[in-house]
Amino acid sequence: MTTPAIRATGLRKQFRQADGTPVLAVDDVDLTVHPGEIVAFLGPNGAGKTTTVDMLLGLTAPDAGTVEVYGTSPGEAVRQGRVSAVMQTGGLLNDFTVAETVRAIAALHGRSDRVEVVIERAHLAELAGRRVEALSGGERQRLKFALALLPDPDLVVLDEPTTGMDVGARQEFWQAMRADAALGRTIVFATHYLAEADEFAERTVLMNHGRIVHDAPTTDVRAAYGGRTLTFRPPAGAVGADGIDADWLGQVHRALEPLGVTDVDVSAASLEAAFLALTADDQPIGAAR
Ligand SMILES: Nc1ncnc2c1ncn2[C@@H]1O[C@H](COP(=O)(O)OP(=O)(O)OP(=O)(O)O)[C@@H](O)[C@H]1O
């Protein structure tokens, strides 16, 4: 059995708000990620994604529970260059060009040999001479991604890497990520965007109120919780000024076919429906849909 990229058990973290009220940001989270997996952490604002990611990287100490990254502490794994991160915030020096930034950080890591390859991987070759202050939000994130790749880590952790990007920038970012992931790197990323989990991650971990509410292959999340959507066109006589006649709808429930329903279309529910079902506060987890 290979050592997991991440093994977290019983993770818990509580913060205090300014007025002293406690907030349980992460509540008993267990997570194992195997080498080569691409995992999305998906959840609404305040779900606990960033706090979890911070604990996986050793940036925040858990109040309870343990984290191992490749069988060692997160801090040690970072020091060994086995894991690196692209965080939401984080300093880049505005006066440096892209190439100067990459060269400077590469020298710090003792990996000047990787300057060319990471610039290419992050699709930054054409921007190499541009100063950081002139980069768009998406280009800055690609630069951070390039820096994260310098130690040639086995695991890259990204915290909402495309927040604030427009659609085009987001696509470019994920193109760069996808090309890199194809080489076998383990990737864990937090996102608000259902489409990103859907398109990019094989596995989706849904978080809400500090807990993991679902953890499964992304396709299963949709299938298991989204149910199915049935759309049809009612006969003209059943549609009035106020919409579809309620009595008629009652009959539809009992017997579809004899009512002359046409254009019946059964489609898989969207990941969005699954997400809403799983994160609705009044929806018991695992309730049948
Ligand atoms: N340093 C802190 N002090 C106080 N409360 C905090 C702190 N960090 C996080 N929290 C609270 O913990 C909860 C989880 O926050 P966290 O940032 O982990 O969620 P998130 O899922 O990443 O949210 P977002 O998508 O908005 O970034 C929130 O209620 C947040 O307000």
UniProtKB/TrEMBL annotation:
SMART domains: AAA. Gene3D superfamilies: P-loop containing nucleotide triphosphate hydrolases. The keyword ATP-binding applies. It holds the Pfam family ABC_tran. Its main location: membrane. It is found in: Cell membrane. Residues 6-234 form the ABC transporter domain. Keywords: Antibiotic resistance, ATP-binding, Nucleotide-binding, Transport. InterPro entries: AAA+_ATPase, ABC_transporter-like_ATP-bd, ABC_transporter-like_CS, ABC_transporter_ATP-binding, P-loop_NTPase. GO terms for molecular function: ATP binding. The keyword Cytoplasm does not apply. It is a peripheral membrane protein. This is ABC transporter ATP-binding protein.
